[in-house]
Amino acid sequence: MKSNINFDARLDSLGIKLDPVAAPLANYVNVVQTGNLLFLSGKGPRTADGLITGKIGEDMTVEEGYEAARVVAGLQLAVLKDHLGDLNKVKRIVKVLGMVNCTDGFGNQPEVINGFSDVMVEVFGDRGKHARAAVGMNALPRNICVEIEMVVEVY
C-alpha cells in the first residue's frame, strides 16, 4: 500500500538535492525495469568537482568512504526519480551491492557502505531497509572509491 509520505519534502528536510542524471560512461543504461523491479546500474561518487577517487585504507579513511557512499545514494535517488517521475512509486529498496576500492586486509567495507544504506533508511524509512552485500575490491573503474548498485521494487 502506498503511503502518504511526500518523499520530495523528505529529501528537502534532509538537505538532499538531486542533481540531473548523467549519461552512462559506457555501453549500458542507468536502469532496467522488468515488471515491478528496477535494476540500477552501479554508480560511483561524482560531485560538481568530479569523481571521488582513492583507495580506502590507503589514501582515504572509512569516514571519507562513508561520505562518498552517501554521495552515491543521492545519485541513485536521482536515477529513481528520473525514471519514475515520483519517488512515492518506490515500494521497497530490495537489494544493494556495495563495492569498496580498498587495500588488502581492509575489513570495514560494511561501515563504508553504511553511508548509502543510511540514506535509503533516512529517506524511505522501513521501505529503505534492504538486503545487502558490502565487498572489497582491488580496483574499481577510474579509481573510484566505491561503486553501488541496487534493486528496487515499485508500485
Automatic annotation (TrEMBL):
SUPFAM superfamilies registered for this protein in UniProt: YjgF-like
Native organism: Portibacter lacus
CDD domains attached to this UniProt entry: YjgF_YER057c_UK114_like_1
Top-rank lineage group of the source organism: Bacteria
Gene3D superfamilies in UniProt: RutC-like
Protein name: Endoribonuclease L-PSP/chorismate mutase-like domain-containing protein
Residue stretches making up the Endoribonuclease L-PSP/chorismate mutase-like domain: 9-145
